[in-house]
Amino acid sequence: MLRVAWKSVRHDWRRYLPAVICVSVSGLLMIMQLALMLGAFRNVSAPLSMSSALLWAGPAEETSFDSGTSLQTPASSLLWLIPEVERVEPFALAFSTMSLPVPPGETTIPKEHFIQVVGTSIKKDAMLFGDVISPALRESLAEPGTVILDKVVAGVMGVGIGDNILVQSKMMRVVGVLDGLRGVMMSTVLTSQATARSLPGQESVGVPNFILVGLAPDAPAGTVDRLITEFQTHPDLRLWKKDELITSTMEQWALKSAIGVIFLSSIGIALIVTLLVVSQSLSAAVGASIREYAALRAYGFSYRRLQRLVLAQGGIVGIAALGVTGLVATLLIGYLQGKGVAVFVTVPLVLWSACALMACVFVSNLIALRRLRKADPAALLR
Questions:
Q1: Distance between CA 355 and CA 322 in Å, rounded?
Q2: Residue 178, in any domain of the structure
Q3: Is residue 342 within 8 Å of 42, Cβ to Cβ?
Q4: Is 74 part of any domain?
Q5: pTM score, two decimals?
Q6: Are 118 and 47 a contacting pair, CB within 8 Å?
């Protein structure tokens, strides 16, 4: 049956080409939207993904690290009572604005950029952003009034290392730029904890939202899982693995933020449009081949065998479309990554997209099967 379906699709490829193009375009839009959305949401979790700490402690009721909820001091002090804990490091978010200083004599109001300020330790072995900040760059943050910017944001603003910017109307000097600090709605600006506390109206930076937990090198295997289990019932404190907190934060942005709902709604609309267009294309292909199907009925093909034939043809269309989508998406993602655009693709994402497209093709095929009722051998005599 597959051989017959393949030969028919190859022979009448022009009839099936619109369906292949439609499914390919829909799949490309879907996977690129998801990749860009997850890339942007993963950048929100940059303090997590770029830090060396594998264990994070936060408020028990929070499922996203950027919620802004402060961690109570009595709860965080419990971490020091754990024998395997070697060190802890606070993480606090502060929201502010950033702009260029106005040159003397000019009255133009500079454009302001919304940012989140993160104060990090200036110790060489600090865990916060420990995977991306070199010891020399971290040491440069010891100078008061110094910051590290996202590379793309710095390029948009036209500033480089050594230039000055205004953060909350306070003059700061750029000492470094890093990739991946640009989030969905704002960028992350790194500075020392002392500089972060010195910003006007940011006295709350001293109160952590989460705490990075460093375990002793000789901690037994399974310590992380054991500690997470022990704190599951704690009323004020919850422990997270880094990857689990990143995933939870991305889910919160994708499912509960307005931007995430818009992205997911657009994907749903794209699938509905694909279903309508592909069903029409496949129905037209079946209608154009109705005499051939009638001839097969005359040769002894049952109606069920014809149904399986049409379903196999639709499957070939879907597989061909997936191949085109995969090739073009790979090229586009590689190009965007080369340009510094945040794109995040996982195997489950690709599999989910492929299953959604094939399900769409399958339903379209079921709709097209209605045209087979006209495949009557008597039609050959008309």
A1: 10
A2: yes
A3: yes
A4: no
A5: 0.75
A6: yes
